[in-house]
Amino acid sequence: MALKVKEVAELVGISVRTLHHYDAIGLLQPEEVTDAGYRIYSGKDLEKLQQILFFRELDFPLKRIKEIVTSPSFDQHETLTLHKKMLLEKRARIDKMVRTIDKTIEYRKGERKMSAKEKFEGFDFSKNPYEAEARERWGDKAVEESKEKLNSMSGKEKQDFENKFNAIYRELAEVRHLDPASDVAQEKIEKWYLFLNTMGRYSLEAFKGLGQMYVEDQRFTKNIDQFGEGLAVFMRDAMAIYADNRK
């Protein structure tokens, strides 16, 4: 099998730009490039792309995927078995959350009773997809403090936490078109810094690093930009300015 980049993109359902990016960072470099500069993907390349996309579905960052698939100990069959296990766990959690939504709809219609515990079935704060990166950047102590505090919260406290979290993001989204260094922007980003420090001990350097991750990691960017396009970049810049001004 020999396919050009456009043919692979159409087959898989991803963009040509994504494939070019994977090539540029050394994640998926086709076995052959013609004299005219055309990338030619083999069947082996497609197998590797499948592995990469399974990891992406499980929210692995590209840097980590590259480390895994280029490791001398990488075993394709073993990895597929792991993919299946993790996806089944993800499906079970999503199914539980869908059932919670159905129960909540019935509860709001007055068709059933619902305990406080039932309202949060399916949420699993013990498996944070960003935990590995957080540990690497800021150390175990800060992560454990945040995790311990979150796990000790009651259902109502978790709901209050989420409400405050979303409120700050909405406020930031409203001013994202301003200069990140402006007084208004810095006042809003300070609320985010203080909020984070209610959960753990985030130094100014860690705060600045977190903002950088908002842009470097597509998972963060996607989630943050749901509040407003360009919010992740705005927050990164505002957080860096806030940290630098207070060093």
UniProtKB/TrEMBL annotation:
The keyword Transcription regulation applies. Signal peptide: none annotated. PROSITE patterns: HTH_MERR_2. Keywords: Activator, DNA-binding, Transcription, Transcription regulation. SUPFAM superfamilies: Antibiotic binding domain of TipA-like multidrug resistance regulators, Putative DNA-binding domain. It comes from the Bacteria. Residues 2-71 form the HTH merR-type domain. SMART domains: HTH_MERR. The keyword Translocase does not apply. This is MerR family transcriptional regulator.
